[in-house]
């Protein structure tokens, strides 16, 4: 039996012109996760990432902290959906930028209300966000990565770095959850959080979900982020 460790990327640059880049905090979260595993003697036989920059940066931070020397297998099927395209599919007008710190929380909530609605319609096939695969194609990319792990890494520790959408989709696939339940899982995954599957050549089984063991200390109380 092997163990698959699924990691959501560290904090990215929410609200910036280029979201697909780790913030300084995201970089620190990633390195700390690698250090945590190294201190406990957890060794990875293989790594897999999505093709987004925040995925490869997170893996590089983990590798730095853990002393990993192998190169990850990059699978674009583990890329996140385009949240802006999802929102535009139901709300064509651009969302306003906050003009002050006081406005930011409400605009943040509006963003995620629209995202939840857009994801629901995308999963149902009601909308087709521009430049994105269908939901069934998105699920297939995640499922193919899980199949690859089972077929090639029996009895090994495998690290997979991706985003909240693909990780929630993997959990939903393994547990047979509804799309609505999968959305709720997605919107609650924290940055650098770890989800663990045990696997055999036949199946994956959920062991843990959305944990932050590497940040379980008073000195890390301000390191918990979601976006």
What does this structure look like?
- The protein has 227 residues and is an alpha/beta fold.
- The protein has two domains: 166 residues, Phosphoglycerate mutase-like (Rossmann fold, 3-Layer(aba) Sandwich), CATH 3.40.50; 50 residues, no CATH class.
- 42% of the residues lie in helices and 15% in strands.
- The protein has seven helices and six strands.
- A six-stranded mixed β-sheet has the order 3-2-4-1-5-6.
- Helix 1 crosses helix 2, helix 4 runs antiparallel to helix 7 and helix 5 crosses helix 6.
- It is globular, with a radius of gyration of 17 Å.
- The two termini are 33 Å apart.
Helix tally?
Answer: 7
**H/E order of the elements?**
EHEHEHHHEHHEE
Number-wise, the strands total: 6
Looking at CATH, the homologous superfamily of the largest domain is Phosphoglycerate mutase-like
Overall CATH architecture of the largest domain: 3-Layer(aba) Sandwich
Reported for the largest beta sheet, the result is:
6 strands, mixed
By CATH reckoning, the class of the largest domain would read Alpha Beta
Low-confidence stretches: none
Strand content: 5-15%
């Amino acid at each position: 039996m092997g163990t698959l460790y699924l990691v959501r990327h560290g904090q990215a640059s929410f609200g910036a012109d280029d979201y697909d880049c780790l913030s300084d905090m995201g970089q620190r979260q990633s390195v700390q996760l690698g250090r945590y595993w190294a201190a406990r003697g957890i060794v990875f036989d293989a790594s897999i990432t999505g093709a987004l920059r925040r995925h490869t940066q997170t893996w590089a931070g983990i590798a730095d902290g853990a002393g990993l020397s192998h190169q990850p297998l990059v699978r674009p099927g583990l890329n996140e959906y385009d949240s802006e395209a999802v929102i535009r599919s139901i709300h064509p007008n651009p969302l306003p930028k906050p003009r002050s710190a006081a406005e930011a929380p409400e605009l943040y909530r509006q963003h995620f209300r629209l995202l939840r609605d857009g994801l629901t319609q995308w999963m149902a096939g009601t909308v087709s966000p521009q430049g994105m695969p269908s939901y069934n194609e998105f699920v297939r990319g995640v499922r193919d990565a899980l199949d690859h792990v089972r077929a090639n890494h029996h009895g090994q520790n495998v690290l997979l770095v991706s985003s909240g959408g693909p990780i929630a989709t993997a959990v939903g696939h393994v547990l047979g959850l509804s799309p609505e339940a999968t959305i709720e899982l997605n919107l609650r995954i924290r940055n650098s959080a770890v989800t663990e599957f045990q696997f055999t050549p036949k199946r994956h089984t959920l062991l843990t979900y959305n944990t932050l063991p590497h940040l379980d200390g008073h000195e890390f109380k301000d390191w918990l982020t979601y976006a």
